[in-house]
Amino acid sequence: MKFGYFANIHDSTKSRDYSEMVNEMREVAGFLDDAGFDTIWLPEHHFSVWGRELMGNPLLMAADLAARTKRIRIGLGAAIITFWHPLRLAEDVALLDHLTGGRLEFGVGRGNYGLEAQNLNPLADPNNPPMNLKVFLESIDVLREALGNDRFSYKGEIYQFPAPGFKADRAHSVNDPAYVNPATGELVKLTTFPRPRQRPFPPMWQMNSEAIEGVRGAAAKDMGIVMWRPSVKTIRMRLEVYKEAHGAASGGDIPLGAKTAVMRDTFVAESEAEARRIAEGPVMEALDFANWRGPRIFLDPGEQIAPELEASLKKKLTYSFVSERALLFGSPDDVAEKLWQLHRETNIEQVLFKCSWPGLAHEHTMRCLKRIASEVIPRFRARELEAVASDRARHVGGLEPPAVLNV
Fold first, then answer.
1. How do the residues of the chain divide into helix, strand and coil, expressed in percent and rounded to 5?
2. What are the φ/ψ torsions at residue 75 (nearest 5 degrees)?
């Protein structure tokens, strides 16, 4: 199993110096790099009048962090591609891939907030899901064509590249037969520059909140998925769907859990009581802020709850409801055990910890990350080694073939 971190910038006071918060982000990234974490992921959000999610451009932040780190891979978690011109984004992503030294993970999302879409690309308003999806899917196709091919063309319902009818402008004409239709002189191919360092392009991931068709679509394109706060049983169900869809599209077979990740709100302290004392308020306030879907995102497949409980949880989530379903709160032993159970039941490839929410002091986040690095992950790795040794012993004894694990 790989371990990453989901980072963001918040200021619930709406009064902090942004440079100070950027320096805190740099401190987190530097620590993760030194401590051996595999990835750090950066989101994109706009116009946050609430003091939450204050990172408008994860690509610029990624370039800065790449210059200050050596080995950790840097993920866009996610670039909201429906708000970008796809060709400009292809160029920026390719350049970022070079600036990171080939350490870029390219996560993409559709966008959740109408406030953002109405002011950046009204056509992609998530309040109109069919059109939002159309913009998203065409944007993915354009990005993959532009990044993955030295010359490309694309024709969809929304985008068409090159723009039809272009022959020459007042500055330069294009005479290269690799780009021009010789019969008409019309430009029929484009190239975006630079070409990415990783070929055909950086690993792509799709953010997945709950749509099962999104899981199938990502698998069909050989894109990984990053899931937000589902229960262990729901994770297992989605991973089975992903594996089946990936096999149907590729004709091959991947291990269950390959190319998948899940984000977990995490806080490690001396005990669960101490973790709750420090971080329960901030994490529950953050979950309630994002509770516009209601409690269904935390339910197991097929699970139903009483209408009165559902109505109550739509108004305010409770720690007791979400803790066993989606949180990693507790002592190092507690959290290592929860991680082990998640691993054994799903074989998921990567867990992304989130240890910062509006209202939690930066010092608490750093203390938590240090405990994860020095106390939680070593406990988990010891369990992995024990399991591998036990599995090999059974195999040598002829009892059963060795299991395929994401370790």
1. 50, 15, 35
2. -105, 140
Residue spans of beta strands (DSSP E) within 11-67: 39-42
Strands 204-208, 327-330: pairing is unpaired
In the predicted structure, residue 403 carries a pLDDT above the cut 80: no
- How far apart are alpha carbons 74 and 299 in whole angstroms? 31
Q: Which residue has tokens 């991680």? A: 339
Which residues are paired to 152 by β-bridges?
190
Q: Residue 39 and residue 200: Cα distance in Å, rounded?
A: 20
Question: What is the rounded distance in angstroms from the CA atom of residue 155 to the CA atom of residue 293?
Answer: 35
Structural domains in the chain plus CATH codes:
2-396 (3.20.20.30)
Look at residue 285 and tell me whether its pLDDT is greater than 80: yes
Q: Are 159 and 149 in contact (CB under 8 A)?
A: no
Which residues, 6 or more positions from 295, have their beta carbon under 8 angstroms from its beta carbon?
305, 310, 313, 314, 317, 321
Q: Is the bond leading into 332 cis (omega within 30 degrees of zero)?
A: no
Q: What is the pLDDT of residue 389?
A: 85
Q: How many CB atoms lie within 10 A of CB 312?
A: 15
φ/ψ of 325, rounded to 5, equals: -90, -35
pLDDT digit string, tens, across residues 25-48 = 999 999 999 999 999 999 999 999
Contact by Cβ (8 Å): 97, 197: yes
